[in-house]
Amino acid sequence: MHDVKIAFLGLGVMGYPMAGHLQKAGYKVTVYNRTAEKAKKWAAEYAEEYAGKYDRHQARTPADAAKNADIVCACVGNDDDIRAITSGPDGAFYAMKEGAIFIDHTTASATVARELAAAAGDKGLHFLDAPVSGGQAGAENGCLTIMVGGEAAIFQKVDPILHSYAQKTKLLGPAGSGQLAKMVNQICIAGLIQALSEGLNFAEAAGLDTAAVIDVISKGAAQSWQMDNRSQTMANNKFDFGFAVDWMRKDLDIVLKEARNSEVSLPVTTLVNEFYKEIQAAGGNRWDTSSLITRLKK
Fold this sequence. Notes:
- The chain has 298 residues and is of the alpha/beta class.
- It has two domains: 170 residues, Rossmann fold (3-Layer(aba) Sandwich); 116 residues, N-(1-d-carboxylethyl)-l-norvaline Dehydrogenase, domain 2 (Orthogonal Bundle).
- The chain contains twelve helices and eight strands.
- About 2% of the residues have low confidence.
């Protein structure tokens, strides 16, 4: 499998380390980023360790990166971004060879996933929507969770490659299923963070030793990833890291639009989305999502 040529489009806080894990695993990786300096930085970083081992370069366009690739991975911002790098001018779909596989790690809508899966199929390509969970730390440590929509045979073919940066992968159904599963993920996270914020604020107001309370309740039914990884930083008002509020707002807008289309009630998610708007208005656009607690602090 290490003879597989991979293109990676989008080198943000997630894509940069994900592409790096592929390179470390021994794959032949070509990268593209809208800001070329980021691609140059990536190539320089991994060229130092792997100098002379494989060909690598920074592509000028998505099409340039994709034209000789067996697999093209992408991790960009939103529906418009993924459309632009696939079907827009110089898009990857116009250069990919027949039978090549496009894996979209962007958190986007199920609608765009189905749209691009159909467009890829018309060109003799394969498409998987494969959004990730685990945040920047998960990407850097190679322990992401990947929710996948698409054909079973194609998923099975690429699954070993996905494990270069994932600890868990799961095919959940046809195109769009990965994005729908990511929406479930974000719904659950939004509610958990709000509940944790209220609990921590209550403990402090009641005069309890917050750290001691977390130590004991984290061993019971209230335990969660958010509690284990964010309770201490929330108590210390540290939010300059992690999954940004702006990104969560983007994700929750996708969730709520899908819910309206499906006539599904999401009262807590709707409320928490409004709370995040308040965080943005207070200047916390790039704060970690755990900054919900700042709304409750007196």
